[in-house]
Structures are given as C-alpha cells and as structure tokens.
Write a structure and sequence with these properties.
heterodimer; A: 210 residues; mainly beta; Double-stranded beta-helix; twelve-stranded antiparallel sheet; 12 strands; B: 219 residues
Chain lengths: 210, 219
C-alpha cells in the first residue's frame, strides 16, 4: 500500500505484489525486492509502435517483492491519487509510481500538449488502485463542476482526472505583438466534472514568453 | 554538555548554543547569523587531532574547510539551501561524507576511515561506485551532528535479520554497528541496455540506523 513519509518520499509496503515506478527512483528498501525494466505506452507490439511514434517513452520498472520500498525523485513533492475505475491524465515526467494493476497508455493531446512544452502526447492511467504523481512544490487539487469551469496556466498543470473536456484558449491581443503581453497568452480551460492538479511553479512554455 | 546542541529552526536551518569552554566545528562559511559574543577561527588543520590527522585528511581528500566556533551566544547555520538533519550520537560512530558535514560538537572525535578497511578490495570498489571515494569521515563519541542532504531525510532502522538496501546516490550517513557492502543486481538486461536503473545497491546489515535523502542528487 502507498503511504507518504513526509511530503517527498513514497513508502510502499509489499507482500509479494508489484508496483510500477519510474526507472531509478528507488532510494531504499528492506526485505527482498526484484527490479525489472518495463516500457511505458502500453504493452506488446502496439505499445512499442506507440512509444516510437509519440516520444512519450517513460522508462518504467516493475518492483516486486516482500518488505518496504521507498521511492523519491529529485526531492519533488509527491501526491497520492486514488483511482476507482476512472482515468488519470498525467505528464509522464510527473508520474512516479502506480499499482501494478493499473493500465497505462498514451493519448494525443493536440495543441494543449504543445503549449505545455511537453509534446503532443500524454500518459493515461486507468483502473482501480493508487498512483503517485510528482509536482514542483506542493500541488493543489482544484474541483471543476458544471457551473464552475477552471482555467489553468499550461506550465502549472500537472494532471487531471474525471469527466473533463479541455479546450485551449488564448489571450493574445495586439499588445502581445508589440511585446507588451502579460505573460499569460495561453490557457487551458477545463469544463465538466472532475479534478485538476496544479503545481505552484511553471515549466518553461512558449506562452510564458509572450 | 547540554542535551540539544542543535535546534532545528526550520528544515534548512539549525541554531546552536555556544557556551564558554565548549567548542563547535562547522563548515567554513556556513554561519548565517549569530547573537552574543562568538568568534570564528578558521581551522587550518580541518578538524581535530593534530598535524598528522591533517595530513591524513589531505591525502584522503576528506579535508573540508572547517572553522571552530567559540564564545558565548547562539549561532545559526545553514548552507546552500540544503536540508539539515540533526543526528544525536551516544557513544557510537557516525560514517558520513566530509562535504555533507554542516556542524558538529567539539566533544566528538573526528577521524578518517579507509574504505578498504571494511571489506578489502570490494570496499574500495564500493567507495568508487558510490562516489564516496576511498575514504570517509567518522565521528565518534557523545554529541550531535548537523548533516546536509538534498531534499528531506528519513531514517531507516537496521536490525539483525532486517537488511536494508539503499541507492548509493541517495545514501547520506549511517551509525551503529553496521556492516556495509555493495550488492549488484546486474543481469543480462543491464548488458543490453534494458536495466531498471537499480543495478548497484548498498547493503547494510547489523544494528543501527541509515539516513536516506529524498533525491538521487549528490550535494
């Protein structure tokens, strides 16, 4: 089972079961553990083709054994997400670990992906179980409901779950072209019903410069 | 000797009380602020134990510039925005890399240990793989030490029959009666470039505590 030890270390107690985690993110373990490399983007030949085409190749390892295993990555803050049959969309660089029972895949994000500075594809996690996602600084979870849509800076977005539609909106005006933009030229708009995870830090995006 | 020499102000700063007749050692330049009448003397010898120890440390490349702190007042220490962990020793020996030492009490005996003395050639190989080099610093006695790490630190107890494995890059320090060896989980997958990134691990067994940081970055 996943539990947080402080805000930057994930401890997983295992009794013969397995977890999938980012390659090389184990910092310590006791008991007996075996590490095996897997590849993200789905299983089999289809997954391999997807990885090649999308560049969304998170290298994942499968950890199996008995005891406690601790994971951490470059002192990033860790957030636990519980999935009950719904789908989590997360950037592969922000995904630390998932229960082995959860399916991971890759989806096309279009223009939104490009604006986040992360490429056109994103990772999906689906099924029943827990996942651990990383953020630069403690993340906030924002609820989106039918009457309250949410607009997020693409650089601060890390993940979302639930039944959400996303659209891309731009605040480009003539001022932007004069070099007087407010630095918030592009935003992602979420509508529907679900949760959005936002970090208190912004990745470098094109939108941040204009 | 007062019980708590170092008080954690927040996760990245410690405050120490200095009383006449008591001495602290700290990494040179790690003082942030002080109150009272405190003097800082650069310690050319880089620690305790006279000239021979100094030569030893120079050769061992474990000679982090230290200063001794004396007087009457309180001093705050911190360095490079790193997390600071206070470790209290009650007579046992702490093994730590010299550049991770922020400050320690003058009651502790400082020494240098040759990695080869624990496990011979494999000990030396271990030092190279973990980036610790051929030598490491030891502190022995009763007192407290402030150690730096990247990200937060958590401690994992080691008891007989409960062996702990640590990623060499995330290892910070350990104390107690602990045997330390490098274990490899190298398989054919690593040879064909499909390794899990966990090929080398430090295997610690015995009785004591190991400190692990929440990051795989060296200082």
């Amino acid at each position: 089972m996943f539990r947080l030890q402080g805000s930057k270390v994930l401890a997983v107690d295992m009794t013969g079961d397995a977890v999938k985690a980012k390659n090389g993110s184990m910092v310590a373990y006791d008991g007996q553990m075996a590490f095996k490399k897997l590849s993200g983007g789905g299983e089999g030949l289809r997954g391999m083709v997807t990885r090649r085409l999308t560049g969304e190749q998170m290298t994942v390892m499968e950890v199996r054994g008995q005891g406690t295993c601790w994971f951490a990555d470059r002192a990033s803050e860790i957030n636990l997400v519980r999935l009950q049959g719904d789908k989590l969309f997360v950037e592969s660089s922000n995904l630390l670990a998932t229960d082995a029972g959860l399916r991971t895949g890759t989806t096309f994000t279009g223009l939104r992906g490009a604006s986040q500075g992360n490429g056109l594809f994103t990772t999906t996690v689906e099924g029943h179980g827990q996942a651990a996602i990383m953020s630069d600084g403690p993340a906030v979870v924002l609820r989106v409901s039918a009457q309250y849509p949410l607009i997020v800076d693409p650089g601060a977005y890390i993940a979302h779950q639930g039944n959400l539609r996303q659209s891309f909106q731009s605040g480009v005006t003539f001022r932007t072209f004069l070099g007087e933009g407010g630095g918030e030229a592009f935003q992602i708009r979420f509508e529907g019903d679900g949760l959005v995870y936002v970090q208190p830090s912004e990745r470098n995006t094109i939108a941040g410069d204009v | 000797m007062c019980d708590v020499a170092f008080r954690e102000i927040n996760s990245k700063m410690v405050e120490a009380t200095v009383l006449p007749g008591q001495r602290l050692f700290s990494q040179r330049g790690a003082m942030l602020a002080y109150k009272g009448d405190v003097s800082f003397t650069p310690n050319i010898q880089g620690g305790q134990g006279g000239v021979m120890s100094m030569i030893g440390r120079r050769i061992a490349n474990e000679a982090t510039p230290l200063m001794s702190v004396e007087g009457n007042g309180t001093v705050m220490f911190g360095h490079g925005g790193h997390h600071v962990q206070v470790i209290n020793l009650t007579g046992d020996t702490l093994y730590v890399e010299a550049d991770r030492l922020l400050a320690f009490e003058g009651t502790l005996r400082q020494g240098t240990m040759f990695m080869g003395s624990q496990g011979g050639v494999m000990g030396m190989v271990r030092g190279q793989v973990t980036g610790q080099g051929l030598f490491t610093t030891t502190l022995q006695g009763v007192g407290s030490v402030a150690v730096m790490a990247h990200g937060g630190v958590f401690e994992v107890p080691i008891t007989p029959g409960r062996t702990v494995h640590v990623d060499p890059q995330a290892y910070v320090a350990h104390h107690g009666d602990v045997r330390n060896k490098l274990s490899t989980a190298l398989g054919w997958r690593d040879m064909v470039g499909r390794g899990s990134g966990e090929a080398f691990q430090l295997e610690l067994s015995g009785n004591g505590v190991v400190y692990v940081q929440a990051s795989e970055e060296k200082l």
